[in-house]
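step 3/5: co-fold with EPU
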Amino acid sequence: MNWQKNYKNYIKLNEPLKNKTTFRVGGAAKLFSEPEDKRELKLLIIFAKRYNIPVFVIGAGSNLLVSDKGVNGLVLKLSSGFFKKISTKSNCLEAGSAVSLAQLIRLASDKGLSGLEFLAGIPGTVGGALSMNAGAGGMAVGDLVQKVKVMDYDGNTKILRKKEIKFAYRKSSLGKYIILSCILKLKKEKRAQVIKNIKKYLDYRRDTQDTAYPNAGCIFKNPRGHSAGRLIDLCGLKGRKYGGACVSAKHANFILNRKGATAADILKLMRAVKKNVKNKFDIELEPEIKIWE
Ligand code: EPU
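step 4/5: write tokens
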């Protein structure tokens, strides 16, 4: 095909995605690219549109389950230096979508800026965190947003102000765009206090969550007024296994890839968990992780 000649420097074929996710499962992307900058990203978007190829964007892959069959489309990973720029101006922090949450928090604490500490220990990127409105303990990243620079799926760049974006519990209206960068508004605080806050969140995560094996964080959203982890725990499902996948004994809303799990093992375990919670509490759990099937 003609496009293969024109795009062969940008696009890899059948690129395994397994090691690009924290779950370490799943098949390959039929097409995969890591654009150098906005111009290359735009070329790829226009290419995908022209050939009617679905586009998927991967960040740190920390909230993602890729099916064993892989992804029949173009997977884009924004990982170049262009998407990793980060700076501060007064109380505001500007960050590219590929900046890790760890880097974001480090810069904020170095500059004595508070507000992001609740994200400490979450292994994601700025783009991923914004698109799913990542949060913890009643706070979410959307609360701090001032502006987000995005590209639409026609290749146009736009700046969205906060009032043009909808943020809700673990979701946002940014899903219809590719996130390029954002400006977050923080508040001045003593550095020592910011560091103390970060430590509190890290300690809580270490004490309550399970990172001994590859995982994708919390699997299900918390139903209104409940903790999914607690409901699953009350069903006695800690330690429940299917193939290489296992419900964590420490936090029941974590599934661990203990021993070469497949995506099918994890999906099967998720279905069993959902069924048990539905039967016992008449509550329908909804996945928090993204599933690419
Ligand atoms: N609980 C149990 N058994 C369990 C797990 C939890 O009884 O196996 C109880 C806890 O004892 C506590 C309550 O459930 O009383 C809530 O647990 P936790 O504080 O761990 O919070 P969570 O609601 O399970 C949420 C977020 C986490 C975030 C934590 C900490 C969701 C789905 N989960 O978990 O986010 O780290 O609060 O703030 O909103 C993620 O997004 O991937 C994630 C893990």
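step 5/5: annotate
Residues 136-137, 208, 217-218, 221-222, 227-230, 233, 251-253, 288 surround EPU (CB under 6 Å).
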